[in-house]
Design brief:
By secondary structure, the protein is α+β, with helices and mostly antiparallel strands. It has a domain of 113 residues: Sandwich (Jelly Rolls), CATH 2.60.120.10. The protein is 51% helix and 21% strand. It contains nine helices and eight strands. Strands 1-8-3-6 form a four-stranded antiparallel β-sheet. The radius of gyration is 18 Å and the shape is globular. Pfam families: cNMP_binding (PF00027). It comes from Flavobacterium hercynium. This is Cyclic nucleotide-binding domain-containing protein.
Length: 193
């Protein structure tokens, strides 16, 4: 399980074997059964997590009761509410397991310990934060400038591994459209083929 975490870290930075071992030992394994929550709105997020098995959705419920999915997290992805984690304020998000899932979590205290004792770890999180900002910026631009159909097509091309694991309702919530509208898009695409 920690082998996947070590591979992920190695994609971003170089650490000595003992350093990577020390860092990985700061993580605790947490099992989250399907339909259970890693975080609920109103709780303070006390972790950053690395998904080793399963599938999560990170979402917000707006004032009209509509679910807005920010992102999905599968194996080899990081997961948190960075706002709540950093500011230690109540979360506006839910993090729910859509499958029986396993996640390695690190506390703020242990992360700070890693920053102080393993200087390369700060670089790791800086690089990951920059990549997250790029992804969020691209998603915002896409949501503002592209049609729902083109966003759906890009989603299917970018995340083919998610298509069989998600319901149409979940995909629609991620795209910011209704399930009926998504069904119409899928029919339209099928006719074109």
């Amino acid at each position: 399980m920690k082998a996947l975490l070590k591979q992920n870290i190695a994609k971003h930075i170089s650490l000595l074997e003992n350093e990577i071992e020390d860092f990985c030992n700061l993580f605790k394994q947490k099992l989250i059964p399907k339909k259970n929550f890693l975080l609920r709105e109103g709780e303070i997020c006390k972790f950053e997590g690395f998904v080793t098995k399963g599938l999560f959705r990170v979402y917000h419920i707006d004032k009209n009761g509509f679910e807005q999915i920010l992102y999905f997290a599968i194996e080899n992805w990081w997961i948190t509410d960075i706002d709540s984690f950093t500011a230690e304020t109540p979360s506006q998000l839910f993090i729910e397991a859509l499958e029986d899932s396993e996640v390695l979590i690190i506390s703020k205290k242990d992360k700070e310990f890693a920053y102080a004792n393993l200087p390369q770890i700060e670089k790791l999180f800086r690089v990951m934060t920059q990549k997250t900002h790029v992804a969020l910026q691209r998603r915002m631009i896409d949501n503002l400038s592209k049609t729902a159909e083109s966003r759906y097509i890009e989603f299917t091309e970018k995340y083919p591994q998610l298509l069989q694991r998600l319901s149409n309702i979940q995909i629609a919530a991620y795209l910011g459209i209704t399930n009926v509208f998504l069904s119409n898009i899928r029919k339209k695409i099928a006719v074109k083929k």
